[in-house]
Every structure is written in C-alpha cells, then in structure tokens.
Amino acid sequence: MNTHKLFMAIAEAFMIYGLIIVGYGILAIHVTKTWFGDWHVDRYLPWLTLDVFMMISFALSFFGFIVWRYLKYIEEAK
C-alpha cells in the first residue's frame, strides 16, 4: 500500500468535507437568521454547538490543505 497516496487522500478529504460543513453552517445560520449558531450538534456533547463545529471543521480543512500541498510538493520533487 502506498502510504503517501493514502495520506494525500485523507488530507484532501479533510479539506473538502471540512469546507462543506463550514458552508452548511453559514447557510443554516443565514437562512434561519439567528446569527449566533448556538444550536447543539449532538445532545451527548453539550459543548459542541454549530459555531464551534464550524470552527473545528475550518481548522481541519486548513490543516488538510497544508498537508495536501506539502505532500503534493514532495511528489513533484521526486
């Protein structure tokens, strides 16, 4: 198994799905016009509200983008 391609796929998935969640959160907040996003995402995790979930997702997508670019750079340098 090629671990380089596996890590590239994981980083790309973090990047894409993280931005999809951020887009969903922005859309949900603007459609309902709450402007806070303090909805609970899961009842078993009371600290996980929509705005916190969006921030975590954006951070994961940013981290995924950095890793993806680094792995792409390494692949091109070979």
Topology (SSEs and partners):
Layout: H1 3-32, E1 40-42, E2 45-49, H2 50-77
Antiparallel strand pairs: 1-2
Describe the protein's architecture and organization.
With 78 residues, the protein is mainly alpha-helical. Helices cover 74% and strands 10% of the residues. It has two helices and two strands, in the order αββα. The protein has helices spanning 3-32, 50-77, and strands at residues 40-42, 45-49. The protein has a two-stranded antiparallel ribbon with strand order 1-2. Strand 1 (40-42) and strand 2 form a beta hairpin. Helix 1 packs antiparallel against helix 2. The longest helix is centred in the N-terminal third of the chain and has 30 residues, at 3-32. It is elongated, with a radius of gyration of 16 Å. It starts with a helix and ends with a helix. The relative contact order is 0.20. The mean pLDDT is 89.
Please outline what is shown here.
The protein has 78 residues and is mainly alpha-helical.
Could you tell me the radius of gyration in angstroms? 16 Å
How does the major sheet shape up? Answer: 2 strands, antiparallel
What integer is the average pLDDT? 89
Strand content: 5-15%
Which characteristics define this entry?
mainly alpha, two-stranded antiparallel sheet, 78 residues
